Predict the 3D structure of the following.
Amino acid sequence: MSLHPHPLFLLNKSSPDPSQLMVLVRIAAKLYEAMGMKRSTRSRSESMSKSRHDHVDGGCRGGESIAIDQNYISWLKEHPSALSSFHHMINASKGKQIVVFLDYDGTLSPIVSDPERAFMSDEMRAAVHDVSNCFPTAIISGRSLKKVFDFVKLNEVYYSGSHGMETMGPPPKNKSYDSKYHQRSFDNEGNEVIIFQPALDFLPAVRKISSELTERMKNIQGVMIEDNKFCLSVHYRHVKDEDYGRVEEEVQLMLVNNPDFHMTRGNKVLEIRPSIQWNKGDALKYLLDTLGFQNSHDVFPIYIGDDRTDEDAFKVLRERGGYPIIVSSTPRETMALHSLRNPLEVQSFLVRLSRWGFDSPTTSHPQ
Ligand SMILES: [Mg+2]
């Protein structure tokens, strides 16, 4: 399957063309079919009312254009919408404890050009809050633990930062984790928590690379080095095309001088990370263990994310019989089994999940 979408056309609400509209109607019908939806027999006003209350539609909001292409329709058949499959998911979770894992950027917040301003909306915060009141909930992000907490600001949620290299959770019951990397602390409500930092030995080297890289890149306009404690994110979204080569050269030079580190690529970002066998999937397993859900027969983990680094968590969920959901509006190769198009659909999904949780108190799990 091609990873590059080939939009048949873009249709803007403000400039409808009758011939394009007919094509759109036919394609939309196929799209609904692929999403497992029947054609609605409700009146338009009923549909709009339901949409306002039940479902946040990610498309055609405020003049936003909607792109529909055949590749996406085919991909959607393989990765059905988690909204249209909601009842199937609930049936699959019967008798098990739902545990919710969420990425942050691009999942709970929109991708923005300034990474310091990737704020989540109040509505999304309320949705995460409500879900965390029903089910154990954790956010696993590439940001530092402190930064992701400062964005989310919810005490009821567990956090894992630096791609899982800094995880805050209850004291672990499983003795297989090296206590040397456990730091005892207290959360904002005075509860004892443990911060697990499996890459702690690398911290002095990360600090050194950070200061050297900042010095060496100070003359490259537009580059931004984000310190995420155990990994460094070099954002080049605002760097001129002709200067990009210098950015990558400097990063590569750091890797030559620090062979215990490696580079990964993201959306307009290069990341320098310690080369340890630990990723978001490991952080997910660690949190399940510390939360008391070692037995995969008793737990139904849901993970929602949009990054390449989330694939490690999707892989774990496929092995454990969980529910991996990718956030994407274009076809992508992924280990996820289900999809949501954007953070607005994530919000809809979380709202629906918490409503179900509140209505089914025997299956929810207040913390
Ligand atoms: Mg993300």
